[in-house]
Amino acid sequence: MNHIFKQGDQGKPIFLLLHGTGGNERDLLPLAEMLNPTYSVLSVKGDVSENGMARYFKRLAEGEYDLEDLEYRGQQLYQFIKESAKEYEFKLEDVIPVGFSNGSNMAINLILREETPFQKALLFAPLYPVDLQNNHKDLSAFKVFLSMGEQDPIVTKAQSEHVIEIFKERNATVSETWVNSHEITQEAVLAAREIL
């Protein structure tokens, strides 16, 4: 997969950067720098093209996911992360997914997999309209930061609250910040730094 790896200080966590629709592997590098410049970075470009815009999985319409593709791409991305951990010599439990929009949605798919040992995530403008009745992953040792938009034109407030519920139902420690729209603000970045 197209990606950028940047080595940080030995023994420190590694940010897994996942961009929004139409972005690329360079988009969130400045965000990682603002969050913690000493952490390593693995920034991955989504390899699904929607009208020429890169994404991590297919969708049928706005807010309507191709669930089979989401499952397949999530597995593929996790496999890539495991291979990268060997190649670049980092531990999977040190990986902190940092996502925006479509990247946040893919991060949620990774976090909810039984086999992923991630302990923290920073998610900006997430949306996850997926039936999770059969998912019982215990996230009691997991911390998540969620930045959501009060007036987000893409994600309704109810959908944002649903994302909060997904994590709370699984006993995760949830920190939330509300911004105005579908965006990453400086205020949200400062709040996200607190849980690091």
TrEMBL record:
Classification via SUPFAM superfamilies: alpha/beta-Hydrolases
GO terms for MF: hydrolase activity
Keywords on record: Hydrolase
InterPro entries: AB_hydrolase_fold, PLipase/COase/thioEstase
Domain Phospholipase/carboxylesterase/thioesterase: 66-193
Pfam families xrefs: Abhydrolase_2 (PF02230)
Name of the molecule in the record: Alpha/beta hydrolase
Organism listed in the record: Mammaliicoccus vitulinus
Highest classification ranks of the organism: Bacteria, Bacillati, Bacillota, Bacilli, Bacillales
